Amino acid sequence: MLRMKKMKKYMKSFIDPSSFYNEVIHLIELNNYEEAINSIKKNIDNLKNLDDIALAFINCGFLYYKLCDYLSAIDYFSKSIDLEANLDIINLRSKDIALNGRSNSMYKNGNYLGAIEDKREAKKIRLLEISCLPELSNIKIDYKNILLGTFIKNDLEPKYKTLIKISKIEKGRYDLISDYKKVISKKRKEEVINKLELLSELKYKIGDYKASIRAIIRSEKYY
User: What is the DSSP string of 43-54?
Assistant: First the structure.
């Protein structure tokens, strides 16, 4: 009996503490975002790795975004950003994800200055990550390749499958840019993106933060 208890304790120590994400994915597929958030929250205390805790906060942030609770989304993205500040470069995901998530939430909440500042900081961080470890640039989950759908078919851990499922901004039913993208070349897309990024920079310099963030959000639709 004693031996059996020791065996169970031994086996328990090897259970992935983030295995609850399988339940979260199921709840997301049912569009039950509130229960998905509750599932993450009740399991956060079991996570020992700061990286995993930060990711849990990010996932909560995107779920709150889907519920249009932008203040809660901002709060959870901020918690993740604060944790990630204490981490070195993360191998499997970029630190730009939480910043972009918070930026989108701030935009929806009418904080245009905060939104554009986060977008700018996210870009700086991503460029720094690439310069420090260029060999990871093609395998790391970042905000751009989330929008591109790069990792959708990859065999990812449940915690990253959750991130991919909930972080991509849904397109409008009549998204003209989405249709236009299908008929223009890659070179033309890059030209449009560069033009919009330049416009954003010009608007930022004159203090028109609303126009600045809108230009960046529009440029991301061409990814």
Answer: HGGG---HHHHH
Question: Is 173's pLDDT higher than 60?
Answer: no
Show the 3-state SS of 24-39.
HHHHHHCCCHHHHHHH
What is the value of pTM for the model shown? 0.88
Residue-wise pLDDT for 102-141, tens only, equals 999 999 999 999 999 999 999 999 999 999 888 777 778 9
The DSSP-derived string for 118-180 is HHHHHHHHHHHHHHH-GGGTTTSB-HHHHHHTTTTTS---HHHHHHHHHHSPPPPTT-HHHHH
Which two tokens mark 181?
A: 């993208």
Alpha-carbon span 39 to 212, nearest angstrom:
37
Q: What is the dihedral of CA 98, 99, 101, 105, to 10 degrees?
A: 130
Alpha-carbon gap, residue 103 to 121, rounded angstroms: 10
Give the pair of three-digit tokens for residue 43.
Answer: 């399991």
Give the side-chain half-sphere CA count within 13 A for 103: 25
